């Protein structure tokens, strides 16, 4: 079998290699998963919980090893990588509890005027679930799919991001030390080469995907009657109103926009600020951006080399386009290979690509608004609808804005973010389909089975 060599985005160091799997390997893995589904799904949930408790323990024990590998492979600050692993361990523990608590429902015919019928609806697993994760959270966004699938008795085919496949292979190796044989399989290889085959495989029942809108749409078009959960791109806006606590707003905006170099679907990707407080807010933002640690993720830098040169070229292209159309660079516009320094652009207008496009990099456009209504209008003028932030001391106004925004979640006086992992997490428009979050993921990857009694 041929293999794919993985190099570090930090310094091109060789990290390892993974098999470029073929259709035959995929068929064999899915066959084995299918064969093991019956026995695994028939275990008591408490038994599956015991296995997953061992998974949680083994990952905790290897958290530092996984964090170092992740740091090198995807260029995420070491502390953030470690936090990601430990956050995932916590998430596993909570998922086990939610899985155990999952109960059926009872409907009485009496409420509908049919006295002699009751319906018992129990939850059943779906079968082989395909979990596809992106590069930016290779541990967390993989486990937040795999674990809710397993606790309810599904079996899992896991497709990791190619840049991230070394750490994910180690993750699965550790998990399979303690899980029953043949309930979790990893398929490595380029998504562009093997993706279509796995997406359309007749024995896949459900696809749980996080990644770009482009790939998500392709999968949706191929899925036919398979169940789908999609977490896709975003263009999250921070709307700052006249009465906002500007110190707090600037601090949340800078953290929201630049952590992991802006390579987060929930990163703040535009600031919409009321003209009267713009100058003060921008100055506070610049003070903080000037202090961001840039460079080596092993030294815990926040802004680090981007995942590859292509991504850096894309981000630079957005900066260049905005400059050529009159935007002003307030800080940044400095690049060393795939390391893009944090950049803030002022005077961003609708004719500039960055007004609408998702950079997935450390660049923050500032857009002036005359009032709250214009803020809502611009925020909604996007193909995306993941999250938004609103900064104001007036809770009534915050509620009003939150109701008007076409997004999955609105954060009041806080940065956009996914966690805590038990919250429902969803996008509208081109940002997604279905709802993630521990309880919601469990529900999505099970179906109701009705048993109706005539009494
Ligand atoms: N809303 C959310 O929760 C999140 C959204 N994102 C979005 O993801 C993007 C960045 O992540 P990135 O990893 O580059 O996203 P991609 O969409 O490029 O890749 C995501 C995953 O899909 C795989 N893939 C690629 N092509 C196919 C295919 N035809 N069929 C099946 N799988 C395929 C990739 O594998 P391979 O690596 O081999 O190409 C990878 O595992 C951004 O747009 C970002 O907004 C990211 C994180 C969270
Ligand atoms: O992939 C992403 O960007 C995540 O889903 C966002 O997670 P975070 O808000 O916890 O960074």
Automatic annotation (TrEMBL):
<dbReference type="InterPro" id="IPR016163">
    <property type="entry name" value="Ald_DH_C"/>
</dbReference>
<dbReference type="InterPro" id="IPR016160">
    <property type="entry name" value="Ald_DH_CS_CYS"/>
</dbReference>
<dbReference type="InterPro" id="IPR016161">
    <property type="entry name" value="Ald_DH/histidinol_DH"/>
</dbReference>
<feature type="active site">
    <location>
        <position position="231"/>
    </location>
</feature>
<dbReference type="Pfam" id="PF00171">
    <property type="entry name" value="Aldedh"/>
</dbReference>
<dbReference type="InterPro" id="IPR015590">
    <property type="entry name" value="Aldehyde_DH_dom"/>
</dbReference>
<keyword id="KW-0521">NADP</keyword>
<dbReference type="GO" id="GO:0008911">
    <property type="term" value="F:lactaldehyde dehydrogenase (NAD+) activity"/>
</dbReference>
<dbReference type="InterPro" id="IPR051020">
    <property type="entry name" value="ALDH-related_metabolic_enz"/>
</dbReference>
<protein>
    <submittedName>
        <fullName>Glyceraldehyde-3-phosphate dehydrogenase</fullName>
    </submittedName>
</protein>
<feature type="domain" description="Aldehyde dehydrogenase">
    <location>
        <begin position="3"/>
        <end position="451"/>
    </location>
</feature>
<comment type="similarity">
    <text>Belongs to the aldehyde dehydrogenase family.</text>
</comment>
<dbReference type="InterPro" id="IPR029510">
    <property type="entry name" value="Ald_DH_CS_GLU"/>
</dbReference>
<dbReference type="InterPro" id="IPR016162">
    <property type="entry name" value="Ald_DH_N"/>
</dbReference>
<keyword id="KW-0560">Oxidoreductase</keyword>
